[in-house]
Design brief:
The complex is a heterodimer of chains A (351) and B (274). Chain A is built from 13 helices and 13 strands. In chain A, the strands form 3 sheets. Chain A has a 6-stranded mixed sheet with strand order 5-6-7-3-8-9, sandwiched between helices. A 4-stranded antiparallel sheet of chain A has the order 11-12-10-13. In chain A, strands 2-1-4 form a 3-stranded antiparallel sheet, covered by helices on one side. In chain A, a hairpin with a 2-residue loop joins strand 1 and strand 2. Chain B is 83% helix and 0% strand. In chain B, helix 10 runs parallel beside helix 12. The chains are: A alpha/beta (351), B mainly alpha (274).
């Protein structure tokens, strides 16, 4: 028996069916010379939720963000943000957005205060007391109020990211667009930044975040869009997507002689079985293992008991919750497999 | 057009320039050399020199000037006439070279600099219209050059009046033609040059390339501005008014076309051809 994955159905329970959409990109394409940055990209982000765009470098994540604010216009397709076309009503859209790009995009010669003051004026907060209050509050929120008088050129990378985050939220945007906001940060600072993003989403903001770091998206994303080659491969909530790819309980079994585990394939309640050497490689103990899909959690003791009764020396039993990483690679592998067979685009695979 | 945002962009760019000592120090030195050091040395040499022959030869050389210009020269002595002519007619290039050099240096880096520093991303995502960004940057490029020139002009007036004034019967500078030159002829030449420089800055890949290309483009313009400025000083009042008017028309056309050069894609550095 081979391990098989269930392909996801067309997204009936997709978030966009039940939420207001803050962002809608429909069949958007955009090229730069001979390079196609976006290729028929369809992407939606529900309001008041965190949507994570996952993909490798060059997948089109940054270009998608630039389309959302109207910084770039599509060659074809349509973009709507809060129902507005950023290409036509760009100013209204951009006023409602806060953006943090992969590089903090700060003016090194200016102080932190002047950087925030510049943004305050461009975003219509003016130069008066109200702007000063907004600057102080946003700086305090990200813990950099003490450094506001210092020249930004002397800030650490983490401080610059915090200042860029403070700048992005100062005018009270409804939509926050973060393009790899933890780029270049140490793990501690990354964690703090992700916590802050979560807090902002908790206060009702809509967040669209790009990353190629799967661990970063784990636990943060309420909706995931996986991109590659400028195209969306799959979209939905992490739970829905992993449920669609792995509809059954997945258990990892290792044994001293992995071949002994093959008898599991014929047991009642086992709907998928695949033996591999991952355990062997990981432990270096001589043990190998298999990934087993069961129809119910209650089957686990039965399977282990049956194996023990048959004299199989089981060294590990571990229920496996598929992560975004599993999902990402499953989607990528699926795409590659279909590409090799010439059976259409990745989105057809995903759907 | 939101003029508040234009002012904001201009003010922020100017503040950065003020903080960039490595930029304004050489520019200040340039202005000091042209408006103070060179005129002071030359005028002192003429008025205080003991070699009468040399001054006489210089005075004779004034005969090459147009009749109208010759008639306007004041002073009873050869030294007085030579120094008057030198102060009024021969330093026109000072008023042109300094502002064009400084503003070209600022303007060349202004848009490509945003791109290189990554701050173009911030501007591209901001609510500011690209025309507002363009005008803000134009003003920020124009002000340092023109301000240096105005301050230098004040210093130059003082130098001229203190050194040459006693030779010609009192303070005489600025003359009417110099006022017209400074307030009506120089600004449009500056604007015209910047319209080209900002277009280059929006299109090239690096600040170094922008500086080089701007140098090539502005050199002929400096020569034209030099000759027209000198002509404005030599000619009658109406000639300088006409020169300024034509320069303004060309400058406005240049600025209008130049406005299209700044796009969000260029601020991001992803436009085709960058």
């Amino acid at each position: 028996m081979t391990f098989t994955t269930a392909r996801p159905d067309p997204d009936p329970a997709d978030a966009e069916a039940t939420h207001d959409l803050a962002v809608e990109l429909r069949s958007v394409s955009r090229g730069f010379g001979d390079v196609k940055a976006l290729d028929d990209l369809t992407l939606t982000a529900p309001a008041h939720a965190i949507t994570v765009l996952l993909g490798p470098n060059g997948a089109g994540k940054t270009t998608a963000i630039r389309m959302i604010t109207g910084a770039l216009n599509p060659d074809s397709g349509s973009v709507r943000v809060f129902g507005l076309d950023p290409g036509v009503e760009g100013e209204q859209v951009r006023r409602r957005c806060g953006v943090v790009s992969a590089k903090p995009a700060l003016y090194d010669r200016l102080s932190g205060w002047d950087n925030l003051g510049y943004a305050a004026e461009l975003y219509g907060l003016g130069r008066g007391d109200a702007a000063g209050r907004a600057i102080r509050e946003s700086a305090a929120r990200f813990g950099i109020e003490a450094a506001l008088d210092q020249q930004v050129g002397g800030y650490s990378t983490g401080m610059k990211t915090r200042l860029a985050l403070a700048r992005s939220v100062m005018h009270g945007p409804e939509l926050l667009l973060f393009d790899e906001p933890t780029s270049g940060l140490d793990p501690e600072s990354s964690h703090a930044v992700l916590e802050l993003i979560r807090e902002m989403a908790d206060t009702g903001s809509t967040v669209v975040m790009c990353t190629h770091l799967l661990l970063e998206a784990e636990g943060l994303a309420e909706r995931v869009v996986i991109l590659d080659g400028g195209t969306d491969l799959i979209a939905g909530s992490p739970g829905d997507l992993t449920g669609r790819f792995w509809p059954h309980l997945v258990v990892r079994l290792d044994a001293e002689d992995p071949a002994d585990l093959d008898r599991v394939a014929g047991m009642e309640g086992v709907v998928g079985y695949e033996r591999d050497d991952r355990g062997l490689e990981a432990s270096g103990s001589g043990a190998g293992g298999a990934t087993v899909q069961l129809d119910d959690l209650a089957r686990v003791p039965e399977v282990v008991f049956a194996l023990a009764a048959a004299g199989v020396r089981v060294t590990r039993v571990e229920p496996h919750v598929p992560s975004l990483e599993d999902l990402y690679f499953a989607v990528r592998d699926g795409r590659e497999a279909f590409s090799e067979q010439g059976r259409g685009t990745s989105r057809e695979v995903a759907a | 057009m939101n003029w508040g945002r234009v002012r904001t962009v201009a003010r922020t760019d100017l503040r950065q320039l003020l903080l960039a000592r490595d930029f304004w120090m050489p520019m200040g030195i340039l202005g000091a050399i042209f408006f103070f050091v060179v005129p002071t040395i030359l005028l002192l040499a003429i008025t205080k020199v003991g070699d009468i022959n040399a001054v006489q030869q210089l005075s004779n050389a004034l005969e090459v000037l147009p009749q109208q210009a010759q008639e306007a020269i004041q002073g009873d002595t050869p030294a007085g006439r030579a120094s008057y002519a030198m102060a009024v007619y021969l330093f026109a290039p000072v008023a042109v070279v300094v502002p064009l050099t400084i503003s070209t240096a600022v303007g060349a880096a202004t848009i490509v600099g945003e791109r290189e520093r990554g701050t173009g991303e911030f501007l591209a995502h901001s609510p500011a219209d690209v025309k507002e960004i363009y005008l803000g940057k134009l003003i920020a490029s124009l002000v340092p050059g023109y301000l240096t020139t105005l301050v230098g002009f004040g210093v130059y007036s003082l130098v001229v009046n203190l050194i040459v004034g006693p030779e010609v019967g009192g303070w005489f500078f600025p003359t009417k033609q110099w006022w017209i030159l400074m307030l009506w002829v120089v600004p449009p030449f500056l604007a015209l040059t910047l319209s080209l420089v900002l277009r280059l800055s929006a299109r090239v890949k690096s600040t170094a390339a922008a500086q080089q290309a701007s140098g090539l483009v502005t050199l002929p313009l400096i020569m034209v501005a030099y000759s027209q400025s000198t002509g404005a000083l030599f000619g009658a009042g109406s000639a300088s008014i006409w020169i300024g008017t034509v320069a303004w028309i060309i400058a406005i056309l240049g600025l209008t076309r130049g406005m299209r050069a700044v796009t969000r894609a260029r601020l991001l550095g992803v436009a085709d051809g960058i």
